[in-house]
Amino acid sequence: MNRPRHFNLLARLLHWTMALAILAMLFIGAAMVVSLRHRDELLALHRPLGIAILLLAIVRLINRITRPTPPLPADLPLIQQFAAHASHWLLYGLMLTMPLIGWAMLSAGGYPIPMFGGVHLPAILPHNPAVYGWLRPLHGLLAYVLFLTVLAHLGAALYHAWVRRDEVFGQMAKGE
User: Fold this and answer.
1) Which residues contact 135 (CB under 8 A, 6 or more apart)?
2) Mean pLDDT across 80-93
3) Please, are residues 41 and 69 in contact by the beta-carbon 8 Å criterion?
4) Spatial separation of the C-alpha atoms in residues 125 and 107, rounded to whole Å
5) What's the whole-number average pLDDT of the chain?
6) Residue (of 7, 113, 11, 146) closest to 69 by Cα position
7) d(Cα 7, Cα 128) in Å, to the nearest integer?
8) Residue 96 contacts residue 54 (beta carbons within 8 Å)
9) Which whole-number Å values give the CA distances from 46 to 49, 50, 81, 142, 153, in the listed order?
């Protein structure tokens, strides 16, 4: 297969847009936990941003599956190749499951799920306080997993840019 030297334009746009959205979401989520005064405003941002991340992740996954990706450097140790592939699929999994778990959690809690302009999402689970009680800490736990995975991803990107000085960072940072 003829593999490109860089990720396609859609992949790069989605990557950087979602990177900003996910970082914003992590900060908004952390602020929601500690702020009673601004909780409603933060929730009003958190819900639609989560759904936007879900929709973008679906587009991104379709693009990833249907378009070839650049190869990793041939001299990259196998353990690092495994870590690169595993962390990317973990990120995709989290980008899809975190919003769905949040949506399911609110549905099970019997909470309305308002978006912008008076649009409300339908419940995807019936009202069930026990399910809500299980999904809420799961959503928080996965937020920590996402945060740590993002830090590892950022660390790996900087390692490739500044230590190895190979083309891995440039594959996502610039096009041809």
Assistant:
1) 101, 104, 105, 108
2) 96
3) no
4) 5
5) 94
6) 7
7) 43
8) yes
9) 5, 6, 34, 15, 23
Which two structure tokens, joined as six digits, stand for 38? 């601004």
Q: Which residues contact 21 (CB under 8 A, 6 or more apart)?
A: 49, 52, 53, 56
CA dihedral 41, 55, 127, 45 (to 10 degrees): 0
Pick the CATH number of 9-173 from 1.10.287, 1.10.760, 1.10.10, 1.20.950: 1.20.950
Which residue has tokens 């929730």?
43
- Phi and psi of 8, rounded to 5°? -65, 165
Query: Which string of DSSP letters, residue by residue, matches 71-99?
Result: PPPTTS-HHHHHHHHHHHHHHHHHHHHHH
- Distance between CA atoms of 73 and 132, rounded to whole angstroms? 45
Q: What is the pLDDT of residues 98-147, one digit of tens each?
A: 999 999 999 999 999 998 888 999 999 999 999 999 999 999 999 999 99
